[in-house]
Amino acid sequence: MHVNPGFVLRRLLQVIPTVVGIVLAGFLLIHLAPGDPVLALAGENGDAAYYAFMRTRFGLDKPLPEQLITYFARVASGDLGVSYVHGRGTLELIAERVPATLLLTGTALLLAIVVAIPLGAIGAQRPHGARDVGINAVTLSLFSAPVFWLGQLAILGVALGLGVLPVQGMATAGSGATGWRYGLDVMRHLILPAFVLASQELAVLVRLTRSGLIDELARDHIRTARSKGIKETMVVVRHAMPRALMPVITVVGSRVGQLIAGAVVTEIVFGWPGLGRLLLTSLQTRDTPLLLALFMAIAFAVTLSNLITDLVHSAVDPRIRLG
Fold first, then answer.
1. Range with the lowest mean pLDDT among 211-215, 236-240, 308-312?
2. Residue 205, Cα to own-chain centre: how many angstroms?
3. Residues facing 82 on adjacent strands
4. Helix (H, G, I), strand (E, B) or coil at 114
5. Mean pLDDT of the 35-59 span
6. Which of 49 and 42 is assigned the larger pLDDT?
7. How many Cα atoms within 13 Å fall on the side-chain side of residue 6?
8. Are 251 and 205 in contact (CB under 8 A)?
9. Is 150 helix (H, G, I), strand (E, B) or coil?
10. pLDDT-derived band at 3, boundaries 50, 70, 90
11. Which residues pair with 89 in a beta bridge?
12. Burial status of residue 130 (CB atoms within 10 A of its CB: 0-12, 13-18, 19 or more)
């Protein structure tokens, strides 16, 4: 496995205009959207002098192009601004919530991969058989269900109905648990939101694994392996699976954006203290600096995941370096 330094440099240079475009699009979308952040903060019954003071304090009295140039200069120096509502740096607020979101999205992605690959392999061994049809029906049903609806169903059925799992939050309020007890408590709270979020990725990965394996199992080198008397399980795992999983690697990287979008809704439904809840409160209060910082953090995560996916893909498949 070898990574071409020239390919890496080209991909890194391509990230620069992407980041500039993200900053520009985010700034314009949020500042041109209806609503006034000063009215959201100070209320609609304040006096004109106080409104003028607030606009001057936050630089909102300047023309939009001047605000844009000032914002670009601040971003270039690593300063994403101070939250209007919290009065703290936006990077500090985001850094506090990132671990919770990473725990939720990482667990959901791992669950989807661990469950989808075996299910795809089972379906590929007998296409259109009873097990294949059953797997497709279940995974497509899960994929078709909106996250918020599936989350509410899980809360009503599993958490409240059976009473076996916590309903909301990341840990039991007031439990005072520490160490491994706290870890177990977090894991219990993580099960439902992680399964709900993973369900959206499951159908995509199952179908990719299934179709890739069906193609691979029909190739000549697979027939040769079978003719040598190698067990079918070894044929699938050792000879067919590595090439069949190439599209899965690509899609896993490109699905990070959808996963984060799904995590925002899932966090709100389950009261998970991650970036999703912070995004919701910043939208409700028109906290523009925090909204912009969250927009950039999410967009940067998607860009970085695509970059890592391309680099992994180029290391596995040398033909990508020529593109």
1. 308-312
2. 15
3. 89
4. helix
5. 75
6. 49
7. 5
8. yes
9. helix
10. low
11. 82
12. exposed
What 3-state DSSP class applies to 128?
coil
Q: Report whether pLDDT(126) > 70.
A: yes
Ordered DSSP codes for 34-55: SS-HHHHHH-TT--HHHHHHHH
Q: By the 8 A CB rule, do 266 and 197 touch?
A: yes
Quickly count: other Cβ atoms within 10 Å of residue 302's Cβ: 20
For 259, the token pair is: 């996963």
Q: What is the pLDDT of residue 317?
A: 63
Token representation of residue 115: 């469950």
The pLDDT value given to residue 103: 92
Cα gap 27→180, rounded to integer Å: 43
Burial degree of 149 (CB within 10 A; 0-12, 13-18, 19+): exposed
- Tell me the CA distances in angstroms from 11 to 48, 160, 307, one per residue in order: 50, 49, 7
Instruction: Dihedral sign for Cα 153, 154, 158, 164, please.
Output: negative
DSSP state of 89: B
Q: Within a 10 A sphere around the Cβ of 298, how many other Cβ atoms?
A: 22
Per-residue CA distances from 49 to 41, 54, 55 (Å): 15, 9, 10
- Span of 43-52, 180-189, 293-302 with lowest mean pLDDT: 43-52
> What would the pLDDT profile of 129-158 be if each residue is shown by its tens digit?
888 889 888 888 888 888 888 888 888 887
**Tokens in use for 289?**
């600096």
- Tokens matching residue 10: 């080209």
Tokens of 280: 């919701």
Q: Which residues contact 293 (CB under 8 A, 6 or more apart)?
A: 80, 81, 90, 91, 93, 94
Question: Hey, what long-range contacts does 3-10 have (CB within 8 A, 24 or more apart)?
Answer: 3/311, 3/314, 3/315, 4/314, 4/321, 6/321, 7/311, 7/314, 7/320, 7/321, 8/311
CA 301 from centroid of its chain's CA atoms: 8
